[in-house]
Amino acid sequence: MTQAASNHQISRDDLKTKLTDIQGEAQEQVDGVKNQLLTAGILIGLLILIAAFLLGRRGGKRSSAVIEVRRA
Question: Does residue 68 carry a pLDDT above 90?
């Protein structure tokens, strides 16, 4: 460190600028994770909906009665 660098005092503006930079980076990461979670939630919901539909169709076919009509 040089003499000039050791005598430099940190001002309020220096702290504010650095904290704003850190907050901006953190906010970008949070926004990215939110988008990923939203996409994953939509896909999981869609898969559950498709599975419920297919299981409902299968159950309906299995328990439906077959009626024969015969004429004498």
Answer: no
